[in-house]
Design goal:
This protein has three helices and 58 strands. The longest helix is centred in the last third of the chain and has 10 residues, at about 605-615. The protein is about 5% helix and about 55% strand. Among the domains are: about 1-105, YVTN repeat-like/Quinoprotein amine dehydrogenase (Methylamine Dehydrogenase, Chain H, 7 Propeller), CATH 2.130.10; about 110-275, 7 Propeller (Methylamine Dehydrogenase, Chain H); about 615-640, no CATH class. The two termini are about 35 Å apart. Strands 11, 12, 13, 14 and 15 form a five-stranded antiparallel beta sheet that branches. The chain has a four-stranded antiparallel beta sheet with strand order 3-4-5-6, with no helix packed on it. Strands 7-8-9-10 form a four-stranded antiparallel beta sheet, with no helix packed on it.
């Protein structure tokens, strides 16, 4: 009798009170159970010798409504949204529709092979079925009649399917490594989303704007429904697919802010869905964090700069700059944002109020700008063949530093004594900040794109179209090392101060599809990271352990320097041309040609911490048993009560 109760009894509980409202004796091993949306009805499927049997129940009365029989194992069941009908899918090659109240079969839909999944459209007019013959069939069915189905093809069997909340489309997940969205009325494929392994589960958010997928590639994907663009790729490290354990269950919270996952081994995940989409109307050219990490600045070809609150991704201010914004930088104290535009104007904006306190001008496009370490001066680089140094408080021009061609970049040394410039005239130059006196030429054979100082100021690095980056001694202007690439070098960056007691590192980004990391003291290459297209920008994490790379292959990568392992793969719709870590290393900002600046929680542990911070308690032992069965109980958030 005890074994009968353990394996053959279904209990229904009221969630608000925990009160048991029904106890149903199935008569055989219960394999699965499903409640109708209004909780009036319940269906159970059986295992063992009765695996081709399902039972329909009325919850309030505990009454069995009828026996639903197939000639083989029942693989899936579903209710219509109003609960009037339920459908079953079986290995016998049929899907059957039953009137719930009478358990009468009202439709039999034949397939060539086993039926694996099925779903009613929200209005109940359509029934979608997935078969091992690699087709999804879309049936416009009616009781005791049905039309010929619309066929939705995949290359391999389909594991799961679901309708959009408004019924306009249907999403399918397949062993062919794809999830696809189809128009319900026509069967036309609208979007296709790719994984690196079988796609096992798929679900829409409640508003239908997003789709979530789980895959045998050990990731969870969050996608825009309309475009098929992947917003987030979340790793699920706890699933061991070698043992046949799959991540099969996934659900959005009703407000769409969280995503929950569960695997067959009982491991679960709770994720906060942060798309990080900071939108402009045209290409985003630059991103920069404030020194305390509370704000992110973006500059765009739409003629605006945005100041965004990092926590939440909300726009704090939109600044109208009149022309394309090519450069943006916060002052060291975070009080001001400087912007450089295509019309030659330099704006100095108060971060809190958004008012423009100072306005300065070049004759042509402003390409780069930098504050001195004490914030007293602002240096700007322009297509008018000059770099200029301005007094921040007044906007007064102190020096105009001439090159023979466009000036691409400017940088102050850490103590503010020197300013470096990089130009199309094939030279980088070193200048004395206090006097504007020219100190040294740092020559290349072709255009110099970028110049940066090491954290201690002892070294300079330059990046050039001549396929090299160079390391120079600041005090003498002497070339120390040449860092070779196979094509143009777009950017160069030093690792932060204090990372290594013996050496700093320098990273380079090149059109040859690689980013490389070198020892500053020896010029020795110690790491190489490869993209499918040109690497346009790079940034070290604040702890110096990771390098972020931005590429024309529409992705940003985050790499562990010591091991060479790729820790994050962040997809975009178009080329990525800017990347920056927040001061605490928690966030990564990217600028893309698709008109969107994105703010990423690039580490899975940070995503989990953010999600757990919004929870108020752990699962109770009863809830744990309800959702996870015999898996040993543990607190998923140790600092929270049960």
């Amino acid at each position: 009798m005890w074994r009968y109760g353990t394996y053959s009894t279904v209990r229904v509980w009221e969630t608000s009170s925990g009160r048991q409202v029904a106890r149903l004796f199935n008569g055989s091993n219960v394999k699965s159970v499903l409640l109708s949306r209004d909780a009036h009805y319940l269906v159970t499927t059986s295992g063992g010798s009765a695996e081709g049997i399902a039972w329909a129940w009325e919850v309030v009365t505990n009454r069995a409504l009828g026996r639903l029989a197939h000639e083989g194992l029942i693989r899936a069941v579903t209710f219509s949204s109003d609960g009037r009908y339920l459908a079953t899918a079986s290995v016998d090659g049929t899907a059957r529709v039953w009137e719930t109240i009478s358990a009468r079969q009202v439709a039999r839909l034949n397939h060539e092979r086993s039926v694996s999944a099925l779903a009613f459209s929200p209005d109940g007019y359509y029934l979608a079925t997935a078969s091992d013959d690699c087709y999804v069939r879309l049936w416009l069915w009616r009781p005791d009649s049905s039309s010929q189905p619309t066929l939705l093809p995949h290359e391999y069997p389909v594991n799961a399917l679901t309708f959009h909340p408004d019924g306009s489309s249907i999403a399918t997940a397949s062993q062919d490594h794809t999830a696809r969205v189809w128009e319900t009325s026509s069967g036309r494929q609208v979007t296709r989303m790719n994984h690196q392994g079988s796609v096992n589960a798929i679900v829409f958010s409640s508003d239908g704007r997003y789709l979530a997928t789980t895959s045998a590639d050990r990731t969870v994907g969050v996608w825009e429904t309309e475009s098929g663009y992947q917003l987030i790729c979340l790793p699920h490290k706890d699933v061991d697919y070698k043992d046949g354990d799959y991540l099969r269950n996934i659900a959005f919270s009703p407000d769409g802010r969280y995503l929950a996952t569960a695997s067959e081994n009982g491991s679960t995940g709770m994720w906060e869905i942060i798309s990080g989409r900071l939108t402009h109307k045209r290409r985003v050219s630059t991103v920069a964090f404030s020194s305390d990490g509370s704000y992110l600045a973006t500059g765009s070809e739409d003629g605006t700069a945005g100041i965004w609150e990092v926590k939440g991704g909300y726009r704090h201010l939109q600044l109208s700059c009149g022309s394309r914004v090519w450069a943006a930088a916060f002052s060291p104290d975070g009080r001001y944002l400087a912007t450089g535009s295509g019309d030659g104007m330099v704006g100095l904006w108060e971060t809190v109020a958004g008012s423009q306190s100072v306005r300065m001008a070049h004759k042509r496009n402003v390409n780069d700008l930098a504050f001195s370490p004490d914030g007293r001066y602002l240096a700007t680089a322009s297509n008018d063949k000059t770099a200029k140094v301005w007094e921040t408080a007044s906007g007064r021009l102190l020096f105009s530093l001439s090159h023979n061609d466009t000036v691409n970049a400017v940088a102050f040394c850490p103590d503010g004594r020197y300013l470096a410039t990089a130009s199309n005239d094939t030279n980088a130059c070193l200048w004395e900040t206090a006097t504007g006196r020219h100190m040294a030429y740092l020559p290349h054979k072709l255009i110099v794109n970028k110049v940066v100082f090491s954290p201690d100021g002892h070294y300079l690095a330059t990046a050039s179209w001549d396929h090299t980056a160079k390391i120079w001694e600041t005090s003498s202007g002497r070339e120390l090392f040449r860092l070779p690439h196979k094509s143009k070098v777009w950017s160069v960056a030093f690792s932060p101060a204090g990372i290594s007691p013996t050496d700093t590192l320098v990273a380079t980004a090149s059109k040859d599809h690689t980013a490389r990391v070198w020892e500053t003291s020896s010029g020795k290459q110690i790491a190489r990271f490869t993209h499918d297209e040109s690497v346009s920008a790079i940034a070290f994490s604040p702890d110096g352990k990771y390098l972020a790379t931005a590429s024309d292959d529409h992705t940003t990568g985050v790499w562990e320097i010591a091991s060479g392992r790729q820790c994050a793969y962040l997809p975009h719709r178009d080329s990525v041309n800017g990347v920056a870590f927040s001061p605490d290393g928690k966030y990564l900002a990217t600028a893309s040609m698709d008109g969107i600046a994105r703010l990423w929680l690039w580490r899975s542990e940070d995503l989990l911490i953010e999600a757990q911070a919004r929870l108020t308690r752990n699962l109770t032992p009863a809830e744990w048993q309800q959702y996870l069965g015999e898996e040993p109980y543990r607190k998923t958030c140790p600092n929270l009560p049960e």
